[in-house]
Design brief:
Strands 1, 2, 3, 4, 5, 6, 7, 8, 9, 10, 11, 12, 13 and 14 form a 14-stranded mixed beta sheet that branches. It is built from twelve helices and 14 strands. α3 packs antiparallel against α9. It is an alpha+beta fold. The chain folds into two domains: 174 residues, Aminopeptidase (3-Layer(aba) Sandwich); 146 residues, 3-Layer(aba) Sandwich (Aminopeptidase), CATH 3.40.630.
């Protein structure tokens, strides 16, 4: 254990009501390797921690997508054992055209849903981490913590510390993360949906069945690489290509997903489902089944079938299978685009986001635009009943763009 203690940079002792603690940070892969034997134990003590904070997931993300950042993993030791780990990074984000050194969680902004500080959660440790970050303030200019639990102790402690230092601070509503509580039967679940929802679902399925033989196929974890290639083939024919979204929006994102399906201890959590019409894949989805919670990662459908909504039909057939098999207690849609998720959800987890910036003309302009002007415009559009029209117009514009070439 002395190797881990020795690997901590700028380590110092702190006294708390829970006893003496040692706090420091890691900036190297070698130091991160020393944490691997302890990561699962710390993760299991974390309320609300998900598959996206497991060691294999974050390490794979960093190896493939973290090359533009610098590790800032804060470690709290007690009796030489890790009791808390804050898996942070420093990246250069552009704000109004200029790079800003920004602290965020590893995996953010889009591949690590609801990131969190791992381990023992108490105000003393949260305050110690916030104080320690300000000892490191020559390294950073901004803090952005997305999708944090409401009432998060680290958010509270850091927000107060930022304000004491007279930084620009904004805390806003984060993503809504809808989910389905999987209990009872598929029929009983459908009974909780609106009549219009059930009729629409039945009509869409009938439209597809009128075109040929409809089949839903769930692929076992043992053939992940082939399943991932099949999924990508569908995604490459979908509207996501035009918006440059999805698993292959860059060569590095494609490599990240390929490494995930190969990684020992992780590949067994993957689950792929395909919707076939006369034996041809027209829609596909995949996610992670971890500790009786299914995280729906990606769904795509062939743009040629857009009028029949095959993605909706696939979601229904996937859920029907999950209810029948009883493999999980929650089906988690994660955050992000909500218009196609709320109709399915039985509940939602609401999150918060914290922004803190070193004072200056550019950061002042950023906060004024994003936290003053933008909310006012959103409220005006909502009152005028135009918000949905504007959103649909933007989506239509994005989908009308020429798709980028398919990288192989």
């Amino acid at each position: 254990m002395s190797a881990l203690r020795d690997a901590l940079l700028q380590a110092r002792d702190i006294d708390t009501a829970q006893g003496s603690l040692q706090l420091g940070w890691i900036d190297s892969l070698q130091g991160w390797d020393l944490l691997e034997p302890h990561w699962q134990a710390v993760h299991e003590r974390t309320p609300g921690a998900s598959v996206f904070q497991t060691y294999p997931y974050l390490r794979t993300w960093w190896d493939c997508l973290g090359s533009n950042g610098k590790l800032l993993i804060i470690v709290v030791l007690q009796n030489e054992l890790p009791v808390c780990v804050a898996p942070l990074q420093i990246t250069s984000l552009k704000r109004l055209g200029a790079p800003v050194r920004t602290i965020s969680f590893i995996g953010q902004p889009s591949e690590s849903d609801r990131p969190t500080v791992l381990g023992d959660s108490n105000p003393d440790i949260a305050c110690a981490i916030a104080e320690y970050l300000f000892e490191l303030k020559p390294l950073w200019d901004s803090v952005v913590l997305f999708e944090q639990p409401q009432g998060s102790q680290i958010v509270q402690a850091l927000r107060e510390r930022l304000r004491r230092e007279r930084y620009l601070v904004a805390q806003v509503d984060g993503n809504e993360c809808p989910f389905i509580s999987v209990s009872g039967t598929w029929s009983s679940y459908l009974g909780t949906r609106t009549k219009a929802f059930r009729k629409s679902l039945k009509r869409r399925r009938a439209q597809l069945e009128a075109l040929g033989t409809l089949e839903c196929e769930t692929v076992d974890a043992g053939v992940n690489e082939q399943a991932l290639e099949r999924y990508r083939a569908v995604e490459d024919r979908s509207w996501k290509r035009a918006q440059n979204l999805g698993i292959a929006r860059s060569p590095r994102h494609w490599q990240f997903h390929r490494e995930l399906v190969r990684r020992n201890g992780f590949a067994g959590w993957l689950r792929f489902t395909f919707l076939k019409l006369d034996g041809v894949d027209i829609a596909a989805t995949f996610g992670l089944l971890w500790r009786r919670r299914f995280y729906s990662l990606h769904v795509a459908h062939d743009a040629a079938q857009v009028d029949t909504s095959p993605g909706v039909v696939l979601t229904a057939m996937e859920l029907e299978t999950i209810f029948a098999q009883g493999v999980c207690d929650h089906y988690d849609f994660l955050g992000g685009f909500l218009s196609n998720k709320r109709g399915w959800a039985s509940a939602s987890q609401h999150t918060t986001a914290l922004f803190g910036d070193r004072p200056g003309p550019r950061s002042l302009a950023f906060h004024w635009v994003y936290f003053r002007i933008k909310p006012v415009m959103r409220r005006m559009l909502t009152r005028a009943g135009a918000m949905q029209r504007v959103s649909r117009a933007l989506q239509k514009f994005r989908r009308s763009r020429t798709p980028p070439p398919v990288d192989t």
